[in-house]
Design brief:
This protein is α/β, with parallel strands linked by helices and 262 residues long. It has a single domain, classed as TIM Barrel, CATH 3.20.20. It contains eleven helices and eight strands. The chain has an eight-stranded mixed sheet. Strand 4, helix 5 and strand 5 form a beta-alpha-beta unit. The termini are far apart.
Length: 262
């Protein structure tokens, strides 16, 4: 089995519990205006042949055995830190069979598993992953469907439905891992009080989640857009201040006091 890999990062502390190896897959169905990894979006071979892209942007084709071999090199660090492997992207559901093969193989050897997903797609792909996952990070970008289409290029109908089903599976024991919601905080896009409250109301309606994590927008991907010859659509937007982030968290807490925020 072969997969299209953007890169594999070791020793991450931001993509799950403990020290983690993060497998970044190529391909994503969304085109978020603020995306900091535009090189991860395309998985088409024709895109990869573009000579204007550097080798890191193009990624590489790897076998399942090669990926598992890289993951296992750091097993000792996982077990001492409570870490493991996280499959990210791009979007793991864009390569569902390869993602399933990775996490299933890791679980067989006792390695903690996680995915970071936009939750867009057919729930059957998610359902197959559940028995082999310890953690799911699901993105909640915008509640308003028209705004979601404007800023990501797709409807959020299946995203919201999938998150609700994951939370239900979590609460009923069909999924024994942890569901964590991530909300990007992007000025001019989703940081108005009513937008934060709508996100809180949605999270409040979920059967069960571990916590909500806010991810302030940043501009670290600008250089990548330049290398790819692409326009960065949020070029004039600055990261939110600490005060604005705290304000958003306070609005969320007021609307959903029972939900833990990190």
């Amino acid at each position: 089995m072969l997969g299209k890999i953007l890169r594999i990062e070791k020793g991450s502390i931001h993509d799950g519990d403990g020290l983690r190896t993060v497998v970044f897959l190529k391909g994503c169905p969304l085109r978020c205006a603020w995306c900091s990894s535009p090189e991860s979006q395309d998985s088409d071979e024709s895109q990869d042949s573009d000579e204007s892209q550097d080798s890191e942007s193009k990624g590489s084709t790897m076998s399942l055995e090669e990926v598992i071999s890289e993951i296992k090199k750091d097993e000792i660090f996982y077990f001492h830190s409570g870490g493991g492997v996280t499959v990210s992207g791009g979007e793991p559901l864009k390569q569902p069979d390869f993602t399933l093969a990775i996490v299933r193989q890791c679980k067989k050897t006792g390695i903690n598993t996680a995915i970071e997903t936009c939750a867009y797609g057919d729930y059957s792909a998610i359902e197959k992953l559940l028995p082999h996952l310890d953690i799911i990070y699901a993105d909640l970008k915008l509640i308003d469907d028209e705004q979601h289409k404007k800023y990501t290029g797709v409807s959020n109908e299946s995203i919201l439905a999938n998150i609700m089903r994951m939370a239900s599976d979590f609460s009923t024991g069909n999924f024994f891992g942890k569901l964590r919601i991530r909300i990007p905080l992007v000025p001019t896009v989703n940081m108005e009080d009513d937008q934060i409250k709508a996100a809180a109301d949605f999270c409040n309606s979920l059967a069960e989640i571990d916590f909500v994590e806010f991810l302030p927008y940043h501009r670290l991907g600008i250089d990548t857009y330049r290398k790819l010859g692409r326009e960065f659509l949020m070029d004039g937007i600055m990261p939110p201040s600490r005060e604005l982030v705290e304000h958003a968290k306070n609005i969320f807490r007021e609307a959903a006091p029972g939900i833990k925020i990190v």
